[in-house]
Amino acid sequence: MRNTPHYLLTDPAEVKRLIRRNPWMTYVSPASTGLVASHYATLLEETDPSTGSGRRDDEIVLVSHFGRPDELAHELGQHEVLVIAQGPHGYISPNWYAEGDFVPTWNHVTAHLYGVPEILSDDENFRILEQLVDHFEKRMPTPVSLDIDEEKARRIARGTVGLRIRVTRFDARAKLSQNKPPEVREAIIAALSGDGPYSDAALAAEMRRLE
């Protein structure tokens, strides 16, 4: 990511918040055949399954699954992978700036996470798949669970490979017009919160968090 020290996001708690709110992630691997990229729903593992205790505040662990044979294309477990978490982002028009400031930009919240994937056993993979389904279904009026037909669900699960990534380092940015004076930031937030062509309530909310 571009070296922009004044937009650095260094707090692991903020990176975890980004992951929780934006579970659709991009995986990039430097495979022997060249770069390979895929996209999968991903959860932050809040509890260490080996101890049953919560993860440390500074510990970031991701769990997900790949559809076969994607794990072979990525050569999972053989090298470090890059996982990209992308939060709210959008175009910032100079129409919202002070007069004479005419250069637009793009605000965003993004994290690059690095680690070597650990391949999960079939049973642990199924447990993670259950967590994924339950996580997203809990908002539905009548949630669906894999235990409706566990035998069939386990047959389908054989077409997937579960993985855990203990993040060893991350590079994150929250570029949210911090370089603009307060009155300009307020104008940008108001425009993003409105009904114009580039309105984006989620991005406006991220900017408000910095106030």
UniProtKB/TrEMBL annotation:
Gene3D superfamilies associated with the record: Electron Transport, Fmn-binding Protein, Chain A
InterPro entries membership: Split_barrel_FMN-bd, TR_PAI2-type
Transmembrane intervals: none
Lineage top rank: taxon: Bacteria
Pfam name, any one: FMN_bind_2
Name recorded for this polypeptide: FMN-binding negative transcriptional regulator
Organism for this UniProt entry: Pseudolysinimonas yzui
